[in-house]
Design goal:
With 138 residues, the chain is α+β, with helices and mostly antiparallel strands. 30% of the residues lie in helices and 37% in strands.
Length: 138
């Protein structure tokens, strides 16, 4: 059991640290700006170029240790229009705690915040095997 702890504890620590920093607002950023910010704030997330979806233009970053994925959806002008953070249910309590701490609760599974005089909504959706947090400009 002790041998497994040396692998589990760093993963949990990285996840908790990632929750502390997420309030960075990526909406309005270009791909290079997103990559720079993620490298600094979430070094555990790596770009995944294997997935291709011709219906949407997005960047996909994956943290395999804590089983999380962040999708940055881009406009035709390569500007981030919204963000979806998908995670395993093992991270649910920590993520809800972070949302409650960082944002204003505005409804069931919904939060809001203001950045640079613009209003944004954060909404959590619970799926069968995972949950998704979506960040959108109002």
């Amino acid at each position: 059991m002790k041998a497994h702890l040396k692998y589990i504890l760093p993963g949990v620590l990285l996840f908790v640290l990632s929750l502390q920093a997420f309030p960075q607002n990526y909406i309005g950023m270009h791909p290079a700006e997103i990559a720079t910010a993620l490298k600094t704030e979430y070094p555990q997330f790596k770009i995944d170029k294997n997935a291709v979806n011709h219906a949407y233009k997005y960047l996909k970053y994956v943290d395999k240790i804590s089983e999380q994925t962040i999708l940055f959806f881009l406009s035709d002008n390569n500007i981030c229009t919204y963000v979806r953070w998908m995670s395993d249910y093992s991270n649910l309590n920590d993520m809800v705690g972070m949302l409650n701490k960082k944002y204003r609760k505005s409804g069931e599974n919904t939060w809001s915040f203001t950045d640079k005089s613009e209003n944004f909504t954060v909404k959590m959706e619970e799926e069968e095997w995972y949950f998704t947090i979506t960040y959108r400009k109002n």
